[in-house]
Amino acid sequence: MKIQQLAIKYQEFTSMDEMQNDDKSLALAAIEAIKGAYAPYSNFCVGAAVRLDDGTIVTGANQENAAFPSGICAERTAMFSAGAAYPDKAMVSIAIAGGLNGVLDHNPTSPCGACRQVMAQYQTKGGKDMSIILVGDGKILKFSRVDDLLPFIFDNI
Ligand code: THU
User: Which fold has domain 21-138?
Assistant: First the structure.
């Protein structure tokens, strides 16, 4: 038996101005997308923006429903929309921003397990790393690939 250890490297920024331009514009698109959130039950409003490998940005926001499991997170709204509209383009980055009543907290909103799994599969489908940018107020985290937020990904399909 061996004890193994996993280390995750990620970047942390205190301001969007420290980020590279395309990441900054994706983060801003995610913040803008919060406006599309429909969250009458949780009041937790989230926006997501996906960048495709040709530079196209597709956004989404969480959509809740009285039949609770029928709602969907911002990230999956954006990815499913991108997957449906641009099936041949790889998704190379996703930015996520959100908070109670749409106000960004210092600690960024982090994607749920289901969204991480969906990211993982689109990353495999696209054949390119998909970076993940979590946007908080004065704290932005960048992970260079989905594996960093979902180690030991299930993709035995
Ligand atoms: N939510 C997202 O859209 N993305 C996340 O990363 C976290 C949670 C949504 C789901 C639900 O509508 C609300 O936020 C509260 O969980």
Answer: Cytidine Deaminase; domain 2 (3.40.140)
Sign of torsion over alpha carbons 147, 153, 132, 106: negative
Domain residue spans in the chain? Answer: 21-138
Q: What number of CA atoms fall less than 13 Å from residue 26's CA on the CB side?
A: 30
State whether residue 140 is helix, strand or coil.
Answer: strand
Quote the ligand 1 centre to 9 CA distance (angstroms): 25
Residue-wise pLDDT for 74-108, tens only, equals: 999 999 999 999 999 999 999 999 999 999 999 99
* 66 dihedral zone (left: phi>0; alpha: psi -120 to 50; beta): alpha
Q: Judge contact between 119 and 94, C-beta under 8 A.
A: yes
Decide: pTM greater than 0.90: yes
Residue 155 CA, ligand 1 centroid: distance in Å: 24
Instruction: Say yes or no: CB of residue 75 within 6 Å of ligand 1.
Output: yes
**Contact by Cβ (8 Å): 96, 30:** yes
